[in-house]
Design goal:
There is one protein chain. By secondary structure, the protein is mainly beta. The chain has nine helices and 91 strands. The strands form 26 sheets. Strands 2, 5, 6, 9, 10 and 11 form a six-stranded mixed β-sheet that branches. Strands 12, 14, 17, 18, 19 and 20 form a six-stranded mixed β-sheet that branches. Strand 67 and strand 68 form a beta hairpin. The protein starts with a helix and ends with a helix. 27% of the residues are buried.
């Protein structure tokens, strides 16, 4: 016993050592043969085609092939019909010259080379057979209704067995059910027959799969008779009829037709399919159920076929053995059948077939052939096709039952070993070679192979190697600083390196090294970790109405180095080929949706490494189909029951049903809503009115819309009756002061309940014991009572009456006779002054009897008689304030201060206004004035200017004075300190002195009364620059006023006029609110050094630049002066040019004069202008028209902008210079003046 344990331990150790030896030996190395392909053990052939028996093998050197047939050598060369394929052992039998059955034998292939011999399985060759049905006489079957029946098929035996089915003469399958079904052997069973089973074309068909042929049995005629037909038929069929019964069958409990007896047994092989059936007859038709007596049915491998009559278990195992019970049951009883199942097993491998061994000289290992079966199989060994006991002895080999132990193998002991495992139900034959080699390592995986894997997934890098002895695999990454062993790396026995969860840092170059005692080999592998593909925005569930569009979005993120492919599926299949389905890069659009488009849509984003998918359902909705089959039941005098069948909901549940009716008697062609019921109901109890000819229809409503109306129901007529109700809305009112109009809402035809509808109208004054006055009114909904007192309360009643009686006692309504104008005015009218613009008016209410109608409210008439100020005109303009309701005080708003108002109060009713109360006065006190009506600035000088204003339009009292406030404003619109002056009331102008020159000021002027100061009026103005050296007036905003004061520059309608100096020139800006479209700008250029120093005193760089330019120009002018003295006189035209900007005067090379001036810049608008006009600044044709002549302040412009002032003395000198050339050279002083013009 101890020795056996030691042996098992040794075998286990050898097995583990060489577990990885089941490797593919490279074909360039010596190796015994290996069978790679062979025909199946039981090989069924088609007799119409050539027979091909496969046998393929590999080895080094390439093996040769031979065959045995029925255990003896098969000499292929002697049979002209048999050939062997080149470099192969496959046989091809040409049956064109021989019959296939002549080659039905047991074949075995042998492949051999100098290192060993491999053999194939025993291949049993049989041809497929599809024999014809034997001729037989099929007699008609006549059977009484309710009896059981079996139609036998009995197909001819074929190889393989045929597939059986029943059809009629038109090749249509016969219907089967729980009552009629086909058994496993092909017979057709009827648990009980019905008259509908009568037919003359019950045909059994057999289809043979290999030959694809179908054979059919002669048709069977079946006639099912009831008791009355049996006696009539017996005489005609007594010679030729197999009559099963003479009486109709009664109901009976079940009885088994298959299997017979109380129990049966069945044997099945492991791994095959177990099918058991129970077919029972009975009336009514029995139901079949199954159970396993000794355990549970294997749910995942079990199915029920043929209406539960067949129990099917696939992939049978030993656990499926035991007893099974089928039960047939109907209302009259039940019956049981027990089936005992035995499971046998042909041999099967426990741990796989034996594997090839590659050993180095001196190594040891084991070859194991471990299998099981029921009954237990036997194991036999062979070497190179010869039983091992007959093979040459080998001391390194020892056979132990299902194991061969190899110890210290030597070169030249390579061989192929065959293991044969067999029992009564089959056998297993396996070849495994032992190849003794000495081989240095090699890596079989392609060098520099690139593996790509998705981040966070498992990465496996192969390093398939071969060598003898078995190489040891070592892995390195990048710098090869250390071996890859341990977390996160796992090294498998076959050399594969696994990373359980790949991350971006795992990307890089890997090196696998294979070593054995004979050498070393290394290989480089690259791993790239990619970002996963993810659907960021998934398609969403859509509910779309028929005919509209649906859009499914599918936005995806993927690794940029991978090429994505978007695929859309519908219901897990391809999208329909329809132009209505538009596939974009990230969406699917379905236009004009139809019902067939409903389903589940899936977007799949595929890359070469991974994919992601998302699905959404499209539900197509439409308004429901109209209800059908309207039926009226349970009709009574005043009610009826209506039922219907709902139409198709079109994927949107019905919310409610609307029931409508047509009154064929009174309103033919008009449908009226009657009632509604919930969408879960299909019946309604309808209340009916008398004297109506009803026709009903039903409409269904879902989330989309109402359906079309159903077809109308049949007509329901109701008998006439007295009215059930009286008119509603009864009211009384007067249209004249002496009448009473009684009106009501008439009854509809549905409410009339009968013919001859009219109304009994009753009224009386609302006093005790007054009698009712009654009239009858037909075809009208009002009645006028004349001669009534003015505005007297009445009680009213209106009763409906028809030819069949009067309606119920009517309710009493109330009304009044006609109104008249009020006859009295409110008393005790007075006013209380709250402030200068608000007063409260009081009065006593007018007695109700004097109002003579419904009190609607009061009206206050008031008007401003005149202002208390002598300058304001006399005004009489009446205003009315209406106050609804019974009020005795109200406010009069928005009064003018310092004014006299008159007012009166009147009451009014539904007829109109009453007389006015006597006029009363309201004298409002003084208030604050409005702003002065105007404020103008004139005569601006260096340090002074004049303000002129007009009194306020609304003085609201006596003006006691004015308040003037003003403050300077700098270029950044910041306000300086405020100066304030108090002015007398009789002044309308003021001259301000000691102001800063060239400064913008803002002025605020208020008028004052005893109640305080009013709102201010504001204005802005700028003091002028130093006029001592004024050279040229230039256009500047605003446009000239129509009536300007002498030598004054009017600012209004301009404001906020300012200027600022910069490198490019002077920026002039303003606000403009006048009506003119064009604005003319007038501006003055001065050459005073002081003023220029003020503007740029803080800009030293600018002063230096100007001085340098001036010096340069001075030098140039001196040079030109010298040359002109030598060459001629200086023209006046060139003098004029000298006044322009030197920056735009290029010097001419020939005479040192300045070139022509380009006026392109002259037409550009001034910067900073904020006027809504086109902002164009217009200049004169001559740029020096104002530079050369006079002071800028002396000239005036008319309304079209032309200059109308007198030229100064300089004009005369200009004319003289223009006519005669000067013979004298210009002096340096004149030259400096010209320089100042430039600057």
């Amino acid at each position: 016993m101890m020795e056996r344990r030691r042996m098992d331990a040794a075998l286990l150790g050898l097995f583990l050592v060489h577990l990885a030896t089941a490797l593919e030996v490279p074909l360039d190395l010596p190796q015994p043969p290996t069978i790679t392909h062979q025909s199946p053990k039981n090989y069924i052939i088609d007799p119409r085609e050539n027979i091909i028996i496969h046998c393929e093998a590999k080895g080094k050197p390439h093996p040769s092939f031979s065959w045995t047939r029925n255990g003896t050598h098969f000499d292929i060369d002697e049979d002209p019909n048999v050939t062997m394929k080149p470099n192969s052992g496959t046989l091809v039998v040409d049956i064109s010259r021989a019959k296939a059955e002549h080659y039905e034998f047991v074949y075995q292939c042998t492949a051999r080379n100098k290192h060993g011999t491999a053999v194939s399985n025993n291949i049993v060759v049989q041809q497929s057979r599809s024999p014809l049905w034997s001729k037989e006489r099929v007699d008609p079957i006549v059977i009484s209704e309710g009896r059981s029946l079996v139609l036998r098929c009995r197909p001819p035996a074929g190889l393989p067995p045929p597939i059986i089915f029943w059809m009629d003469n038109y090749f249509q399958r016969l219907p089967q059910s729980a009552r009629v079904s086909q058994s496993l052997n092909g017979d057709l069973y009827f648990s009980n027959v019905l008259q509908e089973d009568s037919r003359n074309d019950y045909i059994c068909y057999a289809r043979f799969p290999y030959t694809q042929t179908i054979q059919q049995k002669q048709p069977i005629v079946v006639k099912v008779l009831n008791l009355d037909a049996i006696n009539d038929t017996m005489a005609a069929f007594y010679n030729d009829t197999d009559l099963f019964s003479e009486e109709p069958a009664d109901e009976r409990k079940p009885n088994f037709l298959i299997p017979s007896g109380p129990s049966s047994s069945k044997t099945v092989l492991r791994g095959q399919v177990l099918e058991m059936e129970c077919i029972a007859e009975g009336l009514p038709t029995p139901e079949i159920s199954w159970a396993k007596v000794s355990g549970e049915l294997p749910t995942k491998r079990t199915s029920f076929l043929h209406y539960d009559k067949t129990l099917r278990i696939v992939d049978v195992s030993e656990s499926d053995a035991g007893e099974y019970r089928c039960t047939a049951r109907n209302p009259l009883g039940s019956v049981h059948q027990t089936i005992r199942v035995t499971v046998k097993a042909a041999p099967y491998w426990i741990s796989g077939a034996p594997r090839n061994l590659v050993l180095a000289p001196g190594e040891s290992s084991v070859l194991t052939c471990r299998a099981s079966g029921t009954p237990k199989p036997s194991v036999s060994w062979a070497m190179n096709g010869i039983p091992i006991e007959n093979s040459p002895k080998d001391l390194s080999r020892k056979v132990e039952d299902d194991t061969i132990i190899f110890t210290d193998v030597q070169a030249g002991s390579s061989a192929v070993y065959q293991c044969n495992v067999s029992n009564d139900y089959g056998y297993l034959l396996s070849n495994a070679f032992v190849n003794v080699l000495s081989e240095p390592p090699r890596v079989l995986t392609q060098n520099n192979k690139v593996y790509q894997v998705i981040k966070n997934r498992q990465a496996s890098i192969d390093c398939a190697s071969f060598g003898s002895p078995i190489p040891k695999i070592t892995w390195f990454k990048d710098s090869r600083s250390s071996t890859l062993d341990g977390d996160p790396y796992v090294l498998h026995d076959n050399g594969t390196l696994e990373i359980h969860t790949a991350q971006a840092h795992n990307s890089g170059k890997y090196t696998c090294v294979a070593r054995n005692s004979l050498g070393i080999y290394e290989n480089h592998i690259y791993l790239e970790v990619k970002e996963p593909t993810r659907i960021l925005k998934q398609p969403e569930y859509k509910v779309v109405q028929l005919g509209r569009s649906a859009v499914f979005e599918c936005k995806v993120k993927h690794d940029p180095s991978l090429i994505p492919t978007m695929t859309w599926l519908k219901d897990d299949g391809e999208l329909p080929d329809d132009e209505r389905l538009i596939v974009d890069s990230d969406s699917l659009t379905i236009v004009d949706v139809s019902e067939s488009d409903a389903g589940v849509y899936t977007c799949i984003m595929n890359t070469t490494l991974d994919h992601d998918s998302a699905s959404a359902e499209l539900t197509v909705v439409e308004r429901p189909d109209p209800p059908t089959d309207l039926e009226l039941t349970d009709q009574k005098k005043r009610s009826v029951q209506l039922t219907w069948i709902p139409g198709d909901e079109h994927n949107s549940p019905i919310q409610k049903f609307l029931i409508q009716y047509e009154d064929f008697l009174h309103h033919r062609g008009h449908w009226h809503n009657l009632t509604e019921v919930p969408g879960t109901r299909t019946t309604a109890h309808l209340k009916l009115s008398p004297y109506i000819h009803y026709t009903f229809r039903v409409l269904a409503l879902n989330a989309v819309d109402f359906s079309r109306p159903s077809f109308p129901s049949r007509m329901v007529k109701t008998e006439p009756a007295a009215p059930d109700e009286n008119p509603t809305g009864v009211q009384g009112f007067g249209t004249e002061h002496d009448n009473l109009v009684i009106s009501w809402k008439p009854l509809s035809g549905l409410q009339a309940n009968g013919p001859g509808l009219h109304y009994k109208v009753m009224w009386r004054q609302k006093v005790v014991d007054s009698d009712w006055t009654t009239v009858t009114v037909a075809n009208n909904s009002k009645f006028v009572v004349s001669g009534t007192p003015t505005f007297v309360p009445y009680e009213l009643k209106v009763q409906a009456v028809n030819d069949h009686g009067a309606g119920p006692e009517p309710a009493v309504a109330h009304g009044y006779s006609g109104e008249d104008l009020p006859v009295a005015a409110p008393d005790n009218v007075q006013a209380v002054l709250l402030n200068s613009t608000l007063a409260e008016v009081h009065w006593d209410p007018v007695p109700a009897k004097l109002i003579r109608g419904h009190l609607k409210g009061y009206k206050v008439y008031y008007w401003k008689e005149h202002s208390l100020h002598k300058h304001n005109p006399h005004l009489v303009k009446s205003q009315i304030l209406t106050f609804s309701g019974n009020h005795t005080r109200r406010m009069l708003p928005d009064l003018h201060p310092f004014s006299l108002y008159l007012f009166n109060v009147r009451v009014y009713n539904g007829k109109g206004e009453g007389p006015p109360s006597p006029n009363h006065q309201i004298v409002t006190p003084e208030g604050v004035p409005s702003a002065p009506s105007s404020l103008r600035v004139s005569n601006p000088n260096l340090d002074s200017l004049t303000l002129e204003w007009s009194p306020p339009h609304e003085r609201n009292g006596h003006i006691t004075g004015y308040t003037l406030r003003y403050q300077p404003v700098n270029d950044s619109n910041e306000l300086g300190p405020v100066e304030e002056l108090a002015l007398p009331a009789n002044e309308t102008s003021l001259t301000l002195l000691n102001l800063k020159y060239s400064t913008r000021y803002k002025f605020y002027l208020n008028a004052i009364t005893v109640r305080g100061a009013g709102p201010p009026i504001s204005e802005e103005a700028v003091t002028v620059m130093d006029e001592g050296n004024t050279q040229t007036p230039h256009p500047i905003a605003p446009s000239p006023p129509r009536r300007p004061p002498p030598k004054a520059r009017t600012v209004n309608p301009f404001g906020n006029v300012s200027s600022s100096f910069g490198e490019d020139g002077t920026l002039i800006s303003w606000d403009y609110w006048g009506p003119e479209q064009n604005v003319y700008v007038e501006y003055i250029v001065t050459n005073t050094v002081a003023s220029r120093q003020v503007d740029i005193a803080t800009q030293g760089w600018f002063i230096g630049l100007m001085c340098a330019i001036a010096l340069l120009i001075l030098i140039l002018l001196i040079i030109c002066f010298i040359q002109r003295n030598k060459g001629g006189k200086y023209p006046v035209k060139e003098k004029e040019d000298a006044h322009t900007d030197p920056e735009f005067q290029p010097m001419k090379d020939d005479d040192c004069t300045f070139g022509e001036y380009s006026d392109n810049e002259d037409h550009k608008p001034l910067k900073g202008s904020r006027t809504p006009s086109n902002g164009t600044v217009k200049r004169d044709d001559s740029d020096d028209s104002l530079v050369d002549y006079g002071e800028g302040g002396d000239g005036q412009f008319n309304e079209d902008g032309s200059f109308i002032g007198q030229y100064s003395g300089k004009s005369a000198s200009r004319e003289t210079a223009g006519g005669h050339e000067s013979s004298e050279a210009p002096s340096p002083i004149n030259t400096m003046n010209s320089l100042n013009s430039f600057v």
